[in-house]
């Protein structure tokens, strides 16, 4: 009951946030965004046609009216059809979001798991050679550009020049239960996942190590040691659980972006029909219905996950109450 | 009182800091006998807490380490250099420890019962149910009301005094022979401090264990201990019984310290006697006696070479000073 | 009391900063990385002054995609341009992007974070948190793209109405600043809230120091260690983001950068032409790596926990 | 005009927010209905356990925390109603010394900058005069002038506390709140600082409000001592009176609980049961009733009144029902006085 | 220990994946690739080649081009029963359509009588309806310009709908009528000999009204046509077409389609003679913008079956460039062919820009002309071709590419680089480094575009243009660039023009004054004599006389120095040897129906994969490949 009340209140408080996000995104992406009228009418349009098209797209209305319309569609959750493909935005999202999630999630989860293990390991051996090796590796990993990683892995694993083990591009994975085949999935997800892991492990390990080191200096860890606790139990029972708050925050708050943001680079480089590239294209092309929907969905997800983290905090740390 | 329970010889503890290697504890030796309560007193930074941590091998390393010639013998068994696994078996079982800050010393995300059971199950071959029973019993022993309820509480749901009681219960749950109490009452209010000290006294009598009480509060020592080790700047300045130390202090530092403590129920004095100056920096110690430049009785000799502590075998008392008060 | 004072004289006089510097210079890796960064900075300065890499845009139609040679140390690209010179010239671009973004984003973050933290619990804090929340809600690249476009449109309007030219050149910078400052602001806010409750701030109140002076004289300087580290992080992020943004077509304009070179390389590498790729990624990697290690060393040196 | 400071029914409540719309649902009564008078040149010690509101009281008097209600009359003028500007001016005369010698000095400023800042704020003197003033202050508190341009972290705890004192003295205040100035210091340094405060007190006739949790420390410095418990002042008297014949059961327990560095002393200690209750939800009636060994029915319901058991000149104020009865009893000619040695619990 | 197990599991998964059978679609599958993706598949908006290829595959057009006939391209009836009857004055066209052609079964046809949604017959009125859609003000047609002002009453119908606010599809239009169930009658306002070509374009696809009414804007993903294929799925990266089971009987007659043993023999198309179209069951089209990805995928052998050679690979892939010939290794795996695009790339100045175009001040006007000419002299066509078009092909003078009727020869000075001449021109006209205007080169952000710019900058620097005055005006997308162009904000526009139909008129209109931006005349060139000549030539069919007029018009363009033209790129196409087809991207679009794939023998698969030679074992193919090689040598 408390949780429910808390959630409701939290959602109520998030109204200004969502309003702000819509205002910000409207101003940036719609008001100052690209003008589609010319592109929609092809190579031999007349002035009159263009004027009419602009009217149809609503470019001629004043800021307030346009923002009002924007808000109305946000409130009614009616985002209409994409300007550039005429498909219903919600259909497009329904088709692309699962793909993005399936592409991003394995790398995301494994990346975080590996980092947590590395982080614990390094933190426990703080100042020793092992720690230094792991941290040096992390810095190297952090210093390589994502783009370079993608190029190299595609070359190594997907091309005739390398091992040629995985498909170069595409996403031939059945997206419903009957068609889904785990082998297909592994085939297409492996290389993107490896790339994601490679770039994220460096950052994550550093972050997690810092969290664990901080926790390891706490008095209760000394207490546990003074009562004969061994390293494995110490790390996994005492340190890990106590540092779950920053870890959860980091993981959960990046989930909305994993879901809606996808990874533009991965998706465009591996030709995966995910939501990231759809949204990116929409922004650069001025496809308002999609940008609108994307921003609103992320904001709502963000608020949702924010609330979720707060609730989880309480589970993880009994000191925190929902007040 | 023949063989000591714990015998510390030439203990050296060094820390690698940005100012180079510093010796927080420099060649100290003392013995603890079964059942006795020894106060380890001194001002902050004198190395008293580090000494108690070193006994259990809990010096954070790096940057800290125990010197090579040091020896800590527990019941004749050498603890320095003992493998971590064996030390782990002794921690909480033979030698237990309680800490200054009960708020942070207990893990905030587990119930007190969980933490106590962890200790009990590690050192005694019992199942969960029995461990819980023992934990409840222990909590009852340390005077916590409604222990079967409290055992499921988280540390933050208890008051400071309660937490320290839990800490004591946890430390005593495996009937250790030696309890290291590192400033157990410093963080507590006076009225609570009195409760906790009384409790510790009772428990000690019940379990017949030796206690090393690390504290800076001379009042606590006077009321609670039988013997006192006074430390100054990584050295032991003076060792003796409570009576000797408080009534007939020999070392100028002990004497100065005792004089400068404000007391209640005496005739009001205009100004308190003081020890001038400050404690020297550990990275920049004088060559001779470390108290020399604050000492009224200091001579050339004091500045040249540090005085050695000689402990009388029989009285277990001694002073490290060239010019002790008689 | 004389004893105490004698003691005091033996302690060397040093400020927090000199102490940090001394500590920093004891860190071997830190010093090496710092010298690398300095070397890069020097290269960038030389490029800016026109001392070297002046022929980065010159075409050599007969020297298309050649390998390393005496004339072209790192070979040439598809237009026959000298890749070595281009890589060197890109150093300047990188520093330009990094410095502008790091400085402005950190300053903005510091000011907002300070105000927000100082007025925590009031509507001012709520307002700033709201703005930060709104920005953080939007995925990074999407936001950068959106800001980049908006700035471009704005630049066109500015050009049309006021004749201000060249504003669009900063579209990417502004986009990055708009996203980077929030992290600094959050950190500074947290630190300020912590500092605000320290007694020296209360002491300042007690002697009647006015609010703004408390913020900027007493509180802000105590967040400098965070700002410095945040600035280095922003610097590295800016350079790295530039690569992705260049690939997406939102990068720097009218000049060459490592990002642009790598974007070119995405097409060339599969054809077995590696000059652009190796040159740019090596230059980029070494600088980013050095900067990362430098930032770490700096953080260690400035860590107030370790200083006191 | 003998009275420098008069505090009347001072209250400081911190609101607790809760519920769906974060409205105020309760108050932490940090300081609840405290009144006292401080004479010129005298020192009042305020003693109590952590969370009893003694620090808040000090800050509320200086309006570092805005008091919820009540009056603070300083030199005959109620300062609670002063505007911000007027208060800034008043701050010249009322200063504070803090507990934590590490947190109370800005680590980014030199000693000179720290000590001179009040002069700059109040635009007093020329640069040279200011320099002179700083030098003399440093001499006064026992710091060498040469250290003027050093940073706080280069000093030891005791020296830092001296810097803090020098800063408080810059404006030649008439009244200083010393908030546990020696609690964080080691015994040997503690006595040095205590002596310094005593010296200043005698030399300049500054009135102090000396906050401490250690009764022994207070005894050396103070003329009057007030004991606080859960936001209320439960007893106040001249130091000698209070220490010799504490009246309130809490004061008695507190006094007996202090361990003395004297193995020869064996008194029966009154050990209180339980913990200090939370100020968010204090017990009804007398806040001490749930730990008091003399508790009566009335204690649980009625807040005890302020009773002067001393003379008009030599006040000994107690807030305890035992004494209201006693007064009644006295008038009836009976004697029923609780004593410290009446009962012990263990 | 657990770690080792884990690693083992992961490894075994990798191994199974790499050895695993690819899930195959049913029947014959042809896997095509494109270098870009269509956005909309509604015929009225299918402006790109990518979209056109799919719309023409799923919808019917009245006419289409013969599969193998080139230069000239030749129309043949598709949905139309035969070639039209044209009145004497060339104004009235009467077109009969085939009887019994059915739309695919679709939910939009569901009625009480037809609960299963069986596709109804295609009638003449459907064509009339489909053309009207372009003029419906509710729609944003990209193809209406093809018929704008050409058909009697059609524009007025649109105008009336605009004014009324509602569209009345039932309203009769004089010039566009279905005179009976299978007859269409079109009346033109003036002779428009190219109109038949427009009826072969995807824009003129026949759409049933039921589908439009049911799906509205969603028609784009729910095409209901009568073409050889049906759209199964479509997204940004992939479209899947499956055979239309109700498609009318159409038999492949290679001789009718223009088969030439010498030209087409190597492809093995001969074997397809007499087969019923479409031949394959499924067509997968992957849209891969990344050259690298396309190239890698093609080379793997078991992915896409058709691809082009990316520019960066050309040096590796070709053993000679004149004529283009691929290296042994590729020739073994793939069929190779090349084709000149039916279009060209060119750069035109914005003549309304005061700094480079026309100026009211006659002196400045002359100076600007000299500046344009100097820039043209600085332009190094060979350099551009070498870097960006692999050095294959020659630039041509004038605007009509060779091979298109109406082409004439001109002296080569407008495409010859002359740095000294350019410098002299500038000097003589009074240009100095100080007074030269800022040269802003606009392009859409891409690596190649930046390289274009850098090359231009290099050239201009050589003729003494200060580097600081040469700027890149980068637009993040082509849409932005397009907008800027349409708003006449660029000083120069470089782009490619693909011919909509194989007639020079489609090129000459690019400089016709009334077509100025936002029309297709990006140079905004407005020259009285040119306009007059254009109008004169407009109703003429291809003839000697018209060519003469076009020659004069081209001379005007060259003299005024409107821009730098032109060059037709050569496309280098590779396709897997298991695929029988003659791929093209020019003019033709509905070509998937002619493709055949030799189905892989599953048992043999491993071997074929190992030697990397699709289906070399097939006797039919290997011989032909040799033939092609000999042809190349000649």
TrEMBL record, chain A:
Topology relative to the membrane: Multi-pass membrane protein
Chief location: membrane
Domain called ABC transmembrane type-1: residue spans: 97-313
Any Pfam family matching the protein: BPD_transp_1_N
GO CC annotations, alphabetized: plasma membrane
This protein's UniProt keywords: Cell membrane, Membrane, Transmembrane, Transmembrane helix, Transport
Protein location: Cell membrane
GO biological processes: transmembrane transport
SUPFAM superfamilies hit by this protein: MetI-like (SSF161098)
Residues that span the membrane, as ranges: 12-32, 97-122, 134-157, 185-203, 247-270, 290-313
PANTHER family on file: INNER MEMBRANE ABC TRANSPORTER, OLIGOPEPTIDE TRANSPORT SYSTEM PERMEASE PROTEIN APPB
Family: Belongs to the binding-protein-dependent transport system permease family.
Name recorded for this polypeptide: ABC transporter permease
Taxon lineage: Bacteria, Pseudomonadati, Planctomycetota, Candidatus Uabimicrobiia, Candidatus Uabimicrobiales
TrEMBL record, chain B:
GO biological processes: peptide transport
Topology relative to the membrane: Peripheral membrane protein
Location relative to the cell: Cell inner membrane
Domain ABC transporter: 6-258
One matching Pfam family: ABC_tran
PROSITE patterns the record matches: ABC_TRANSPORTER_1 (PS00211), ABC_TRANSPORTER_2 (PS50893)
Matches recorded under SMART domains: AAA
GO molecular function: ATP binding; ATP hydrolysis activity
Family indicated by similarity: Belongs to the ABC transporter superfamily.
Protein name: Peptide ABC transporter ATP-binding protein
Species name: Uabimicrobium amorphum
UniProtKB/TrEMBL annotation, chain D:
Gene Ontology BP, a term: transmembrane transport
Pfam assignment, any one: ABC_tran
InterPro entries hit by this protein: AAA+_ATPase, ABC_transp_ATP-bind, ABC_transporter-like_ATP-bd, ABC_transporter-like_CS, Oligopep_ABC_C, P-loop_NTPase
The keyword Kinase is annotated on this UniProt entry: no
Keywords for the protein's UniProt record, in alphabetical order: ATP-binding, Nucleotide-binding, Transport
SUPFAM superfamilies per record: P-loop containing nucleoside triphosphate hydrolases
Residues of the ABC transporter domain: 5-255
Region span, Disordered: 327-346
GO terms for MF: ATP binding; ATP hydrolysis activity
Classification via SMART domains: AAA (SM00382)
NCBIfam families xrefs: oligo_HPY, PRK11308.1
Family: Belongs to the ABC transporter superfamily.
Name this polypeptide is given: ABC transporter ATP-binding protein
Species classification: Bacteria, Pseudomonadati, Planctomycetota, Candidatus Uabimicrobiia, Candidatus Uabimicrobiales
UniProtKB/TrEMBL annotation, chain E:
Domain of life: Bacteria
InterPro entries xrefs: Peptide/Ni-bd (IPR030678), SBP_5 (IPR039424), SBP_5_CS (IPR023765), SBP_5_dom (IPR000914)
Bias type Low complexity, positions: 610-626
GO biological process: one example: peptide transport
Keyword Secreted among record annotations: no
Cell location: Cell envelope
UniProt keyword terms in alphabetical order: Signal, Transport
Xref: Pfam families: SBP_bac_5
Lineage of origin: Bacteria, Pseudomonadati, Planctomycetota, Candidatus Uabimicrobiia, Candidatus Uabimicrobiales
Protein name: Heme-binding protein
Organism: Uabimicrobium amorphum
Keyword flag Signal: yes
PANTHER family given in the database record: PERIPLASMIC BINDING COMPONENT OF ABC TRANSPORTER, PERIPLASMIC OLIGOPEPTIDE-BINDING PROTEIN-RELATED
Major subcellular location class: other
Family according to the record: Belongs to the bacterial solute-binding protein 5 family.
Gene Ontology molecular function terms on file: peptide transmembrane transporter activity
Domain Solute-binding protein family, chain residue ranges per copy: 74-516
SUPFAM superfamilies in UniProt: Periplasmic binding protein-like II
GO CC aspect terms: ATP-binding cassette (ABC) transporter complex; outer membrane-bounded periplasmic space
Region described as Disordered: 601-634
């Amino acid at each position: 009951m408390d949780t429910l009340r808390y959630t409701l209140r939290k959602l109520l408080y998030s109204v200004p946030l969502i309003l702000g996000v819509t205002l910000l995104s409207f101003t940036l992406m719609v008001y100052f965004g690209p003008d589609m009228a010319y592109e929609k009418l092809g190579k031999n349009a007349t002035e009159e046609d263009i004027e009419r098209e602009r009217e149809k797209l609503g470019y001629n209305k004043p800021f307030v009216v346009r923002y009002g319309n924007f808000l109305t569609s946000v409130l009614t959750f009616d985002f209409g059809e994409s300007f550039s493909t005429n498909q219903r935005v919600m259909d497009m999202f329904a088709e692309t979001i699962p793909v993005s999630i399936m592409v991003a999630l394995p790398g995301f989860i494994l990346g975080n798991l590996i980092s947590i293990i590395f982080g614990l390991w390094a933190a426990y051996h703080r100042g020793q050679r092992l720690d230094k090796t792991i941290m040096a590796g992390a810095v190297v990993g952090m210093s390589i550009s994502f783009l370079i990683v993608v190029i190299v892995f595609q070359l190594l694993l997907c091309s005739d020049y390398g091992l040629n083990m995985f498909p170069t591009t595409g996403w031939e994975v059945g997206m419903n239960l009957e068609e889904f085949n785990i082998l297909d999935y592994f085939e297409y997800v492996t290389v993107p996942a490896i790339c994601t892991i490679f770039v994220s492990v460096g950052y994550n390990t550093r972050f997690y190590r810092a969290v664990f080191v901080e926790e390891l200096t706490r008095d209760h860890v000394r207490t546990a040691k003074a009562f004969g606790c061994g390293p494995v139990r110490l790390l996994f029972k005492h340190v890990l659980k106590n540092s779950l708050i920053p870890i959860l925050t980091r993981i959960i708050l990046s989930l909305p972006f994993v879901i809606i943001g996808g990874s533009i680079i991965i998706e465009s480089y591996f030709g995966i029909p995910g939501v990231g590239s759809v949204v990116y294209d929409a922004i650069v092309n001025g496809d308002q219905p999609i940008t609108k929907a994307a921003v609103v969905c992320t904001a709502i997800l963000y608020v949702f996950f924010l609330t979720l983290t707060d609730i989880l905090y309480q589970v993880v740390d009994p000191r925190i109450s929902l007040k | 009182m023949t063989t000591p329970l714990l015998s510390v010889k030439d203990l050296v503890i060094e820390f690698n800091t940005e100012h180079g290697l510093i010796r927080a504890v420099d060649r100290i030796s003392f013995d603890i006998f079964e059942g006795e309560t020894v106060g380890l007193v001194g001002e902050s930074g004198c190395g008293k807490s580090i000494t108690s941590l070193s006994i259990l091998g809990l010096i954070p390393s790096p940057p800290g380490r125990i010197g090579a010639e040091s020896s800590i013998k527990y019941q004749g068994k050498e603890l320095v250099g003992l493998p971590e696994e064996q030390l782990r078996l002794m921690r909480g079982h033979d030698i237990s420890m309680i800490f200054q800050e009960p708020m942070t010393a207990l893990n905030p995300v587990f119930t007190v019962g969980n933490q106590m059971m962890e200790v009990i199950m590690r050192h005694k071959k019992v199942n969960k149910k029995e461990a819980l029973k023992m934990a409840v019993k222990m909590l009852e022993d340390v005077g916590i009301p409604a222990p079967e309820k409290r055992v499921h509480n988280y540390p933050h749901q208890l008051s400071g005094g309660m937490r320290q009681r839990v800490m004591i219960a946890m430390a005593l749950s495996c009937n250790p022979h030696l309890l290291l109490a590192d400033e157990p009452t410093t963080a507590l209010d006076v009225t609570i401090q009195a409760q906790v000290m009384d409790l510790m006294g009772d428990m000690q009598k019940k379990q017949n264990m030796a206690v090393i009480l690390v504290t800076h509060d001379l009042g606590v020592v006077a009321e609670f201990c039988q013997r006192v080790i006074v430390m100054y700047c990584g050295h032991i300045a003076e060792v003796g019984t409570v009576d000797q130390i408080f009534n007939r202090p020999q070392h100028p530092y002990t004497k100065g310290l005792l004089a400068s403590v404000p007391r209640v129920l005496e005739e009001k004095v205009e100004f308190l006697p003081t020890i001038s100056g400050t404690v020297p920096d550990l990275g920049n110690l004088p060559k001779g006696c470390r108290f020399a430049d604050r000492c009224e009785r200091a001579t050339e000799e004091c500045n040249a070479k540090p005085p050695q502590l000689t402990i009388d075998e029989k009285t277990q008392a001694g002073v490290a000073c060239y010019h002790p008060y008689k | 009391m004389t004893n105490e004072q004698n003691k005091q004289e033996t302690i060397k006089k040093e400020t927090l900063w000199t102490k940090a510097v001394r500590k920093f210079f004891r860190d071997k890796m830190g010093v090496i990385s710092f010298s690398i960064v300095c070397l890069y900075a020097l290269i960038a300065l030389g490029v800016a002054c026109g001392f070297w890499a002046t022929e980065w845009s010159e075409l050599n139609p007969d020297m298309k995609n050649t390998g390393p040679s005496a004339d072209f140390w790192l070979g040439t690209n598809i237009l026959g341009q000298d890749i070595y010179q281009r890589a060197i010239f890109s150093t300047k671009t990188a520093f330009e992007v990094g410095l502008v973004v790091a400085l402005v984003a950190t300053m903005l973050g510091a000011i907002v974070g300070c105000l927000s933290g100082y007025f925590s619990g009031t509507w001012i804090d709520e307002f700033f948190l709201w703005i930060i929340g709104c920005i953080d809600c939007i995925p990074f690249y999407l936001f950068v793209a959106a800001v980049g476009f908006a700035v471009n449109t704005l630049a066109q309007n500015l050009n049309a109405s006021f004749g201000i030219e060249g504003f669009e050149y900063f579209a990417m910078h502004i986009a990055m600043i708009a996203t980077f400052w929030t992290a600094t602001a959050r950190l500074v806010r947290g630190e300020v809230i912590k500092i605000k409750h320290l007694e020296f701030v209360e002491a300042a109140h007690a002697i009647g120091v006015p609010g703004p002076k408390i913020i900027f004289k007493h509180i802000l300087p105590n967040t400098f260690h965070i700002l410095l580290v945040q600035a280095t992080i922003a610097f590295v992020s800016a350079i790295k983001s530039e690569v992705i943004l260049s690939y997406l077509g939102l990068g720097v304009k009218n000049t060459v950068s490592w990002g642009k070179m790598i974007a070119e390389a995405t097409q060339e590498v599969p054809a077995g032409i590696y000059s652009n790729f190796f040159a740019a990624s090596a230059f980029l990697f070494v600088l980013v790596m050095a900067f990362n290690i430098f930032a770490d060393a700096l953080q260690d040196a400035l860590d107030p926990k370790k200083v006191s | 005009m003998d009275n420098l400071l008069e505090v009347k029914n001072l209250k400081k409540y911190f609101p607790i927010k809760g519920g769906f719309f974060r409205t105020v649902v309760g108050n932490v009564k940090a300081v609840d209905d405290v009144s006292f008078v401080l004479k010129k040149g005298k020192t009042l010690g305020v003693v109590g356990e952590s969370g009893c509101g003694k620090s808040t009281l000090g800050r509320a008097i200086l309006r570092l925390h805005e008091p919820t209600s009540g009056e603070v009359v300083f030199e005959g003028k109620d300062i609670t109603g002063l505007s911000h500007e007027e208060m800034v001016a008043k701050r010249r005369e009322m200063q504070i010394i803090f507990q934590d010698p590490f947190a109370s000095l800005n680590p980014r400023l030199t000693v000179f900058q720290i000590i001179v800042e009040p002069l700059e704020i109040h635009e007093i003197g020329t640069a040279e005069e200011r320099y002179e003033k700083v030098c003399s202050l440093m001499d006064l508190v026992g710091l060498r002038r040469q250290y003027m341009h050093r940073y706080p972290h280069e000093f030891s705890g005791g020296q830092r506390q001296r810097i803090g004192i020098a800063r408080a003295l810059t404006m030649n205040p008439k009244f200083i709140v010393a908030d546990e100035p020696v609690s964080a210091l080691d015994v040997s340094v503690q006595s040095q600082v205590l002596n310094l405060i005593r010296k200043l007190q005698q030399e300049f006739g500054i009135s102090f409000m000396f906050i401490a949790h250690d009764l022994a420390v207070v005894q050396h410095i103070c003329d009057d001592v007030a004991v606080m418990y859960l936001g209320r002042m439960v007893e106040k008297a001249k130091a000698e009176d209070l220490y010799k014949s504490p009246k309130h059961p809490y004061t008695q327990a507190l006094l007996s609980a202090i361990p003395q560095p004297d193995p020869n002393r064996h008194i029966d200690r009154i050990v209180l049961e339980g913990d200090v209750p939370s100020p968010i939800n204090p017990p009804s009636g007398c806040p001490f009733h749930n730990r008091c060994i003399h508790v009566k029915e009335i204690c649980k319901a009625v807040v005890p009144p302020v009773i002067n058991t001393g003379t008009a000149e030599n006040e000994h104020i107690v807030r305890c029902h035992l004494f209201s009865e006693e007064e009644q009893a006295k008038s009836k000619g009976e004697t029923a006085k609780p004593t410290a040695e009446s009962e012990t619990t263990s | 220990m657990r770690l080792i197990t884990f690693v083992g599991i992961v490894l075994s998964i990798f191994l199974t994946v790499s050895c695993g059978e690819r899930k195959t679609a049913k029947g014959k599958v042809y896997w095509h690739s494109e270098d870009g993706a269509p956005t909309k598949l509604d015929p009225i908006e299918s402006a790109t080649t990518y979209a056109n290829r799919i719309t023409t595959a799923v919808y019917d057009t009245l006419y289409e081009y013969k599969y193998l006939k080139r230069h000239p391209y030749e129309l043949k009836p598709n949905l139309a029963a035969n070639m039209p009857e044209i009145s004497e004055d060339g104004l009235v066209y009467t077109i009969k359509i085939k009887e019994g052609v059915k739309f695919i079964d679709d939910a939009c046809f569901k009625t009480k009588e037809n609960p299963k949604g069986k596709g109804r017959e295609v009638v003449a009125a459907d064509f009339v309806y489909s053309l009207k859609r372009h003029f419906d003000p509710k729609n944003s047609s990209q193809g209406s310009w093809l018929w704008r002002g050409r058909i009697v009453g059609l524009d007025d119908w649109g105008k009336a709908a605009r004014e009324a606010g509602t569209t009345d599809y039932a309203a009769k239009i004089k010039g566009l009528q279905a005179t009976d169930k299978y007859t269409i009658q079109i009346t033109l306002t003036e002779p428009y000999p190219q109109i038949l070509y427009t009826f072969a374009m995807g824009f003129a696809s026949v759409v049933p009204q039921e589908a439009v009414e049911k799906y509205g804007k969603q028609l784009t993903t729910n095409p209901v046509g009568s073409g050889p294929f049906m759209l199964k799925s479509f997204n940004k990266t992939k479209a899947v077409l499956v055979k239309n089971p109700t498609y009318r009987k159409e038999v492949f007659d290679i001789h009718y389609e223009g088969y030439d043993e010498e030209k087409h023999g190597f492809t093995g198309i001969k074997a397809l003679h007499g087969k019923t179209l479409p031949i394959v069951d499924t067509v997968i089209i992957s849209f891969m913008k990344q050259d690298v990805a396309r190239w890698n995928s093609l080379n793997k052998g078991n992915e896409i079956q058709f691809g082009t050679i990316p520019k960066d690979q050309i040096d590796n892939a070709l053993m000679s460039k004149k004529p283009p010939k691929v290296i042994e290794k590729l020739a073994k795996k793939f069929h190779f062919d090349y084709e000149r695009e039916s279009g060209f790339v060119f750069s035109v100045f914005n003549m309304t820009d005061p700094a480079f175009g026309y100026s009211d001040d006659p002196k400045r006007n002359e100076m600007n002309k000299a500046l344009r000419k100097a820039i043209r002299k600085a332009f190094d066509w060979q350099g551009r071709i070498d870097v960006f078009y692999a050095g294959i092909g020659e630039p041509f003078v004038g605007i009509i590419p060779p091979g298109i009727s109406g082409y004439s020869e001109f002296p080569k000075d407008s495409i010859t680089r002359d740095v000294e001449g350019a410098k002299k021109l500038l000097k003589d006209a009074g240009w100095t480094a100080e007074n030269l205007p800022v040269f802003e080169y606009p392009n859409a952000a891409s690596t190649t575009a930046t390289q274009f710019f850098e090359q231009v900058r290099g050239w201009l620097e050589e003729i003494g243009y200060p580097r600081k005055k040469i700027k890149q005006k980068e637009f993040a997308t082509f849409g932005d660039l397009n907008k800027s162009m349409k708003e006449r904000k660029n000083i120069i526009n470089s782009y490619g023009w693909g011919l909509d139909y194989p007639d020079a008129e489609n090129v000459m209109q690019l400089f016709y004054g009334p077509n100025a931006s936002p029309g297709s005349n990006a140079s905004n060139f407005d020259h009285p004599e040119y306009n007059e000549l254009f109008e004169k030539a407009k109703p003429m069919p291809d003839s000697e006389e018209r060519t003469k007029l076009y020659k004069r018009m081209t001379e005007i363009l060259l003299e005024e120095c409107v821009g730098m033209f032109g060059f037709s790129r050569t496309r280098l196409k590779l396709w897997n040897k298991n695929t029988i087809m003659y791929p093209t991207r020019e003019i033709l679009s509905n070509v998937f129906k002619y493709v055949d794939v030799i189905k892989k023998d599953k048992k043999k698969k491993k071997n074929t994969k190992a030697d990397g030679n699709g289906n070399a074992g097939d006797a039919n193919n290997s011989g032909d490949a040799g033939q092609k090689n000999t042809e190349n040598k000649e």
